[in-house]
Amino acid sequence: MFAIVLAAALGFTPATAHRIDGIAEAEVRAHRTPGIAVGVVESGRIIYARGFGVANLSRRDRVSPATQFGIGQLSQEFTAAALLLLEQNGKIKLDDPVTNYIPKLTVARGVTLRDLLDQTSGLPHVTNWAHLLAAANAKRPLAAPHTVYDPNPLNYLLAGLIVERVTGIPLSDYVDQNIFVPLVMDSSLYTGETGLASTHAIGYTRRGRRFVRAYAWSATRTGGDSGVISNVYDLAKWDIEFPILLRVDAVREMFTPGLPGMLDRHAMGWTIDRRSGTRYIWQHGEVPGYHAMNALLPDDHVAVIVLVNADTFGGNATLPEEIAGRILDVLVPPSAEHVDNAIVARARDWIGRLASGNIDRTQLTREFSNYLSDRVVRQANIAAYGRVISMIPLASTPSPGGATQYEFLVRFTHAVRHYHITLTSDGKIAFISFSP
């Protein structure tokens, strides 16, 4: 363990730190990751920052809070902020068409900059990164703009390209000059840029029972979508300072889901969620060799950052989303409330239905039934969590249109999850989700 910062804060004690240490140390001991770095922010201060395990299996360099990791799709937060800063300065409008800036991208007719950031462009997925625009134009859109949420790396690659066309400088330079330097994020950079320390975390993937070095990922494929390298200290500075860097209306835009309706929780580089009845805003990212999580409880003035140097592409490895969730439960313990036994029984019944694939669509709203396709059920793989050991009601929150969202803390044999189920006023299920 490598400890750098442990400051006194309201409710944060050595015992709290010891519990967080135990969560992280258990991941390393179980060989689920070579290394892990954890940071906690409370009320605008870094109160905990520690590293565990090794950054390099060959040299046995220890992980510290200063160790640099790839952060994957957490990079989208900076790309979104870059476009919001340009809007603040009168250089663009988020409702401008993409083709104003990339006329050759004919497949993007009707798509706005806002659609890119909200992941609602409907643009096709591409694999030919060297000829990005031509590859996109060669395919048909997946959906009409602003109708469906579809996480597509192309959206944020294009957003980064637009930053470059508006400013006349590389995305990395603009973000450095307007975000990293003002916030003193000295260890943050883009893939391929200079500034990577020799002690940075090497990225690994699982092969059988051991970790091997992951293949290198290029700036062409990552850019504005997942190209940033950072560390716990810098991401803590970002969590503390970005509401000051951006105007209040820009922060509001960043945290506003792109589509109306209860199914949508996705905004500009963030997922907008609820946890124990309070706002929960988070993003996770994964690229070969690395996996990251940035989680905010804005009403409690708490943020948790978890970085690991192992991906899940090769099999079982640490899930930063799960680790961050467990740490948040230590910092802000969930409190149980009374929920009608019939609601609890129905919520539990639907865990079993999702695990087995036995979906009774007569119980679902039409919108949610359309969303909850057989493919979505298979991908969720709820059966992998194991059997339900305990299920504690945490909150019931009124939602638009007379619906109510219920939240439970569910302990399975192989996982612990916050489970949300939304019921309409006439008893239909309008939404179900599981989060760390």
Work out the helix count.
13
CATH H-level superfamily title of the largest domain: DD-peptidase/beta-lactamase superfamily
Structural class: alpha+beta
Please name the CATH topology of the largest domain: Beta-lactamase
CATH class of the largest domain: Alpha Beta
- The CATH architecture category of the largest domain equals 3-Layer(aba) Sandwich
Describe, in plain words, how this protein is organized in 3D:
Helix 1 packs antiparallel against helix 10 (320-331). The strands form four sheets. Strands 1, 2, 3, 4, 10, 11, 12 and 13 form an eight-stranded antiparallel sheet that branches. The protein is α+β, with helices and mostly antiparallel strands and 436 residues long. Mean pLDDT is 92; it is low at 4-9. The chain folds into two domains: 2-75 and 171-331, DD-peptidase/beta-lactamase superfamily (Beta-lactamase, 3-Layer(aba) Sandwich), CATH 3.40.710.10; 341-435, Nuclear Transport Factor 2, Chain: A, CATH 3.10.450.50. It has helices at 14-29, 75-88, 113-118, 132-137, 153-167, 171-180, 219-226, 232-245, 248-254, 320-331, 341-356, 366-371, 374-380; strands at 2-6, 35-42, 45-56, 61-62, 69-70, 189-190, 204-207, 210-213, 228-230, 271-275, 278-287, 290-297, 302-308, 388-398, 404-412, 416-423, 429-435.
